[in-house]
Amino acid sequence: MEKNLIDTSKAVNEFMAERGWQGRSCSACSKIFFFKPSSKMDTPICGWHKCDKGACIFRTFSKRKKILTPAQISEKMVEYFDSVGFRQIASRNIANFDGQTDLVIAGVQMFDDIIHRNQQIREDKMFVAQPCVRMQFQQQVESQEGTSTSFVNVCTEKMGANFDEHLHTIDHWCTILSKLGLHMSDFIVVMRTSINDWGTGKFSSLELFFSYGGLELGDASYLFIPQVNRASIPISDIGFGLERIAWAMNKTDSYFDMLIPWTSSGSREMFDSCRTLALLVLCGVQAANKGPGLQFRKFAKVLSEKYYGQDIYHILSYYFDYWSQFIKPSISRDSAIKIVQLEIERFINLKVSEMLKLPLPRDETTEAYFDRLVYNFNVNIYNLRKAIQECKM
């Protein structure tokens, strides 16, 4: 039987108190948050970014002696959760065909076919490192540190979990984070409730948000998903951003310091666009005017309009290899880069065609298009070179 929010909130308070956490009401937003007494996180405000104004003090904490990559951190998590009974499962394709979003935005979407197509409920304990894309962050990448449109959601998922099981899994997360050097005395945990609707009806959820020195790392949600032909499904859904965990552990100046090739430099927007495009094409997504392909096209347009002429194809190859650590590619690296190149240079070719009143391009690279223009239409090569320089400005 579903517990009401008062009961679950009370259980959380007892659970946290037993482990030495103290509860307090935030002076800014009034939400309840928990902290370890006599720690540097003993403050009157919670760790929500709108309350602490994005003050990421974690970068002042002591650093690791040895940097760990996101993939190495994920491996340590897999090993730990396997030891406590969570089976690792393969991540799913980024294109989403069962749920309400075009692209996978969270690991819990592994249950979309169960929730939306009445498939058999799975009650085993699972761990997944799921690549995700959240388009709402695209406009914030350049201005807001710690933000990217694509990331790995490391999460534990358990359908049919009772609330005590959910709390026990939170305990496991506190353990592995501590083992990784992110100690609980440096965290604030914010409790809140929310109303959601995943397409099967409205439901309430109780959520705990984990903020490490002002950096939001992840959350633990307990959900009851309504169903049309059966009882609501309880789910323990606990997920963290792997790249943010890596930033918190390594304490580099920027979130992107660990996420770009060592020999490269440029804007966060450029790297983020390459990073997310590489994930999309690795999963078989190609340019289109709707669905996942539309998002592919948006990122390709950014690269063509702002960053054409920079070493974007090398950077795309780098990110193809990055994502291959977490999801099986559906295409070879060379084929993937060729597909992206054709879409980026489609915009360039159309621009040159319009500027110089030339024949329309085909589905071809800029080099191939210029070949046709010079040899078939006797177009002046110097005019083409001048036009391409304008595209790079």
SSE arrangement:
Elements lengths: L4 H14 L3 E4 L6 E4 L13 H4 L17 H14 L3 E2 L23 H6 L8 E8 L16 E10 L3 H17 L7 E11 L4 E11 L2 E11 L7 E9 H9 L17 H15 L9 H15 L5 H13 L8 H24 L9 H12 L3 H11 L2
Parallel strand pairs: 3-4
Antiparallel strand pairs: 1-2, 2-6, 4-5, 5-9, 6-7, 7-8, 8-9
Give the strand order of the largest sheet, numbering strands 1, 2, ... along the chain: 1-2-6-7-8-9-5-4-3
What is the C-level CATH assignment of the largest domain? Alpha Beta
- CATH architecture of the largest domain, by name, is 2-Layer Sandwich
Name of the CATH superfamily of the largest domain = Bira Bifunctional Protein, Domain 2
Element order, helices and strands? HEEHHEHEEHEEEEHHHHHHH
Largest sheet: 9 strands, mixed
Q: Report the structural category.
A: alpha+beta
Number of helices: 12
Quote the average pLDDT: 92
Q: Name the helicity range.
A: 25-40%
In angstroms, what is the radius of gyration? 24 Å
Spatial shape: globular
Domain module count = 2
The beta-strand count equals 9
| Low-pLDDT ranges | none
